[in-house]
């Protein structure tokens, strides 16, 4: 399970700047896809070394937000109360304010482990800035500049040291496809999971070793083995408090991290909402294989179906490599096709490549359309080799690769996708200068 770190602080101290610094550390691999909401309160920090963790920007802790923003802020505050670690962010230029004191009181009550982060210390005396907050009484305080990425590495070391050790994960069975059903509340996740578990004469068993929070169920279907990873849908809705259980973004991110194939459920009658796009963005960032399950198809008239088809293909154009399956969780229709799509996505995501076939694909793509000349220089692509699965990753060696435009990476992506018949999985390229 991913541990979680919450950023807490009054407005304008630089929380979202720090959030970006933490969640976009592997810039090269996280592309900006049009259609993905980047205005997020939740992200995952992935480091070259050290386990990933969820970062929560609690946004307006002041609590004056209304409507949806208020709901998000409330959820963020609740998440901070459950976070493994809180980063209390303050402004090193402005010094302590009354609002900082309020937050200090709140944090004492919340009783979570806290690191004090004194931000905006670029170009000022960091020690004096730290001293200004000494009366807060935190043993661990860090002077950083989120905007200039100064002090972030030391902060990250301290964060990693304080996160709980990796709990014992249930043993992984390589023959089992790990699937997570994710999506907003009320799209029909529990209905679907209950339908899947109920209709099949299969062996459904709670996987031993999982904690209360991490519920997984093993499933055999059409001669294949699956492990359904923790989602709200897996919880039995017998108890009242479970029935009203809130949509948990942290749990969604955790489920995405643990799965190989994420099935994002969308309510056909509501189309693709911002929250759907945000969950999709999390799947893309994690590089997981993706299947879109468009649920409640039964409730639509022919006219509505046509409208919905048009809307979906527009809104989901940025993930047009993913299969969208129309289902009705209520009636159990489309499930066979859904599992076929899961199987295909998993097959593509874990396909093994030889260096020879990858280099050959690169040569053909390069000859058909070499990269554009930038300021008199043309990037050269020499050879490629496989660099990992789930998602399939291709390492391309060459020269002047810094001037490769994103459109060219997209061209390579589409070319490789087509050539290797990859469906339902993101594809990544890593560019390496020289041999
Ligand atoms: P939030 O309201 O706490 O999320 O704060 P923001 O991240 O939106 O930052 C508020 C303002 O402070 C913005 O104008 C940022 O550019 C600026 N800022 C954030 N971090 C730094 C920093 O490390 N140094 C300086 N000089 N400015 C910063
Ligand atoms: P969850 O919050 O994502 O787990 O959603 P639920 O499974 O609790 O479903 C939310 C509501 O949508 C319930 O009232 C379901 O009966 C209804 N629902 C779920 N699947 C379907 C479906 O395929 N068709 C229709 N018409 N309603 C559905």
From TrEMBL:
Q: Which residues participate in GTP 1 binding?
A: 9-16, 57-61, 119-122
Gene Ontology MF annotations = hydrolase activity
Cited CDD domains:
EngA1, EngA2
> Which UniProt keywords are present, listed alphabetically?
GTP-binding, Hydrolase, Nucleotide-binding, Repeat, Ribosome biogenesis
List the InterPro entries: AAA+_ATPase, G_ENGA, GTP-bd, GTPase_Der, KH_dom-like, KH_dom-like_a/b, P-loop_NTPase, Small_GTP-bd
- Signal peptide coordinates: none
Q: Which residues bind GTP 2?
A: 183-190, 230-234, 295-298
Record carries keyword Hydrolase: yes
Task: Name the HAMAP family on file.
Answer: GTPase_Der (MF_00195)
Task: Give the family per the record.
Answer: Belongs to the TRAFAC class TrmE-Era-EngA-EngB-Septin-like GTPase superfamily. EngA (Der) GTPase family.
What is the documented function of this protein?
A: GTPase that plays an essential role in the late steps of ribosome biogenesis.
Q: Name the PANTHER family on file.
A: GTPASE DER
Return the protein name.
Answer: GTPase Der
Which organism's genome codes for this protein?
Luteimonas composti
Whichever gene encodes this chain, its name is: der
